[in-house]
Amino acid sequence: MSPRDVDPPGGAYVDDSDDEALHWAGDDARGQAAPRLRDAGAASESALAAPEELPEADVARSPAERALLAGTVAFGLLYLALSIGWISSAQLLVYPSLDLLGEIMWQFGEFLAMVGPALWFAAALTLTPEGASRRGTKRMLGLLAGALVLLPWPALLFWIGSMQ
Amino acid sequence: MAAVFALLYGWFLFTASSNLIALPALYAAQGYAEFTPWVPLVLGVVAPPLLYAAALVLGGRRILSTRVLVFAAGLAATAATSLALYVFG
């Protein structure tokens, strides 16, 4: 039976010979005598203790805030679908002319259309920060307007056409 | 910053205006004047200044990063609108 098999429960046993390996040159000069990993362990324990307060914040959330969160998540999923729709649209569209500047701007426009839902979603959230008056209504209206403006018509028309 | 975005929005306004001026004549020359897609053509011209004005107002007195984000979202919506109207036109 090796010495480690008889360690006391709870992992309290620490081989003193490890201490040497866990020291860095200059630790003593900076007043950091203890092995670093033990310090790190203590630091992470204290860091873990703080997030325990988060569930309490969840409990304190009002029904209106929960509805706003649910609405935002639902719109987030819709906006993800819109983005996919525009990526698909960009595959379907071809620049109808030959000039270079026009083609560069056309491709820039396709790129903008693809990232548009993400930009609109981020803008809607940024413009309705916590504490804004009628925050929920404004955010939902903003996200609804964006969803209507950003409908990926090229892909939608293609899919509708291919179904008939 | 607003001027740089004005240029970019302006490009989409320029192309939409070109279409509004040139396409009806083209349709008429082919004898299809009654099929001119007036609604997409006019919407294409109206959308860029409308979205720019909305971004200008909503960005308002906010910090620079927020204003850039709002202008960029408006520009992306302008681009998406122009591509959508292209397939209707």
Automatic annotation (TrEMBL), chain A:
Transmembrane feature ranges: 67-88, 108-128, 140-161
Keywords noted in UniProt: Membrane, Transmembrane, Transmembrane helix
Key word Transmembrane present: yes
Protein's UniProt name: DNA polymerase III subunit gamma/tau
Organism: Homoserinibacter gongjuensis
UniProtKB/TrEMBL annotation, chain B:
Keyword Membrane: yes
Taxonomic superkingdom: Bacteria
Keyword tags: Membrane, Transmembrane, Transmembrane helix
Regions crossing the membrane: 38-59, 68-88
Name the UniProt record assigns to this protein: Uncharacterized protein
Organism lineage: Bacteria, Bacillati, Actinomycetota, Actinomycetes, Micrococcales
